[in-house]
Design a protein that fits this description.
With about 90 residues, this protein is mainly beta. It has 1 helix and 6 strands. It has a domain at about 1-25 and about 65-85. Strands 2-3-4-5 form a 4-stranded antiparallel β-sheet, with no helix packed on it. About 5% of the residues are buried. The mean pLDDT is about 90.
């Protein structure tokens, strides 16, 4: 799917429609010292292995792409869960 690089969208901080740039949201790197990661590592340690069964194959062929909008006037970032698609082309 092709999408424009900029679009007019409502900004909750400006409380008006402004020009916003569109980007694809990508998850940051996980912290190894986070409490959930430490607990999961403790469960995996030793004999017994994985706490839950590991997912071998996925049922879905596509992923939901989350869109990230950045307001040009106030630099406020807002996100919207996108649609399921194989590929997204921004700026076409």
């Amino acid at each position: 799917m092709k999408m424009q690089k900029e679009m007019r969208k409502f900004c909750p901080k400006c409380k008006s429609h402004t020009v916003q740039s569109v980007g694809i949201y990508k998850k940051g790197k996980d912290r190894k010292t986070a409490l959930g990661a430490r607990r999961h590592a403790e469960d995996k340690k030793g004999y017994g292995g994985q706490k839950f069964p590991e997912l071998k194959r996925t049922a879905k062929t596509t992923k939901k792409i989350t869109l990230r909008y950045t307001c040009k006037t106030c630099q406020n970032k807002s996100m919207r869960e996108g649609m399921r698609m194989r590929k997204l082309e921004i700026g076409a």
